[in-house]
Design brief:
This protein has a single domain, classed as Ureohydrolase domain (Arginase, Chain A, 3-Layer(aba) Sandwich), CATH 3.40.800. About 35% of the residues lie in helices and about 15% in strands. The protein has an 8-stranded parallel beta sheet with strand order 2-1-3-8-7-4-5-6, with helices on both faces. The relative contact order is 0.17.
Length: about 325
């Protein structure tokens, strides 16, 4: 005997899935799906004191119970239903093995792209973005990255002469976009890093980032520009390009998001960050990831709630992009 999908007495299923993002169906059937949730519970475990980003996906799902379906006037349709969103669960990563985990993350993204589905993922630390970019580039050769973060994640290689992939010094959260530029999987000249600020471990990192071809808008420059000018610049720069949106939760100030991998003072408020996300509507967003939530340092759960809210904002951006592509 199997449980029926719907019960006519209630006009709805009698049982529902638990533990998924906002209660969407847990499914790997992508036949009617335009966007899918995927967790990537991997971190390199390199930070000396801040650990736990691998727990981010579970916490984002848990806190997503506080996120609601509608946000007028931005959207008044059920985005989850309109896109047929399902939660595919987590990539089966191998903790402690960055190279094998990268292979699995990339393969998982391949499955979604092959099905014509837009990945909406959450990590994990910033290292999980690189294998996703590899998969996205195969479908979108003109791919650009729009990266919001307190750090550029484009540090110089700290192990000159080592074989790429041989250890964490080659692939780690701080070298994600260095590797992406070297591999040619993003068009660095039209890609942007927005928000790097605060103290760093290498005083030449900004120069190194620009030397790899990326445009860098520092946190100080963002403060002088303001949100409206930045958004105008982003839209002008990225119009018509396939955009991979990477949103690192430490882009926010620790006063509103303390539970992150590398907190850095001087970031944006929740209102400013969400306004920026909302202002990206109209870009051709082909994949998104929200990363670097560290629940062990999120005693009230509000950082997780904010991360889940950011995921919903990303779903709205995906909806708008698909609507534009389909001529809606």
């Amino acid at each position: 005997m199997s449980i029926p999908d719907a019960d006519p007495r209630f006009g709805a299923p009698l049982f529902k899935d638990v533990g998924t993002f906002m209660g969407v169906p847990a499914s790997r059937d992508l036949s009617q799906v335009k966007a899918a949730i995927l967790g990537i519970p991997f971190d390199c475990g390199l930070h000396p004191v801040r650990l736990g980003a691998r727990l981010g996906p579970a916490e984002i799902r848990r806190q997503s119970s506080l996120v609601r379906l509608y946000q007028p006037p931005l959207w008044q349709v059920n985005l989850l239903e309109a896109l047929g969103v399902v939660d595919c669960g987590d990539v089966n990563v191998v903790l402690g093995d960055v190279v094998e985990s990268y292979r699995r993350i990339e393969a998982a993204l391949d499955v979604l792209f092959d099905a014509g589905v837009v990945p909406v993922t959450f990590g994990g630390d910033g290292a999980v973005t690189l294998p996703q970019l590899r998969a996205a580039h195969r479908r979108h050769p003109a791919l650009v990255v729009l990266h919001f973060d307190a750090h550029t994640d484009t540090y110089a290689d700290s192990s000159a002469g080592a074989t790429p992939g041989s250890n964490y010094k080659d692939y780690n959260p701080s070298t994600t976009f260095t590797r992406a530029a070297e591999e040619g999987i993003v068009d660095a000249a039209d890609s942007l890093h927005v928000g790097p600020r605060g103290t760093v471990t290498d005083g030449t990192v900004f120069e190194h980032t620009r030397g790899k071809g990326f445009e860098l808008v520092t946190g100080s420059e963002l403060g002088r520009m303001g949100i409206d000018r930045l958004l105008a610049h982003v839209h002008e720069r990225l119009a018509g390009r396939p955009v991979y949106l990477c949103w690192d939760m430490d882009f926010f100030d620790p006063s509103c998001a303390p539970g992150v991998f590398t907190p850095t003072w001087g970031g944006v408020s929740a209102r400013e960050g969400l306004s920026l996300l909302q202002g990206l509507a109209g870009l051709d967003v082909v994949a998104t990831d929200v990363n670097t939530l560290s629940p062990l340092h999120d005693t009230t759960g509000m950082s997780g709630f904010l991360a889940a809210t950011c995921v919903m904002e990303c779903i709205h951006l995906v909806y708008r992009a698909i609507e534009a592509r389909e001529g809606g």
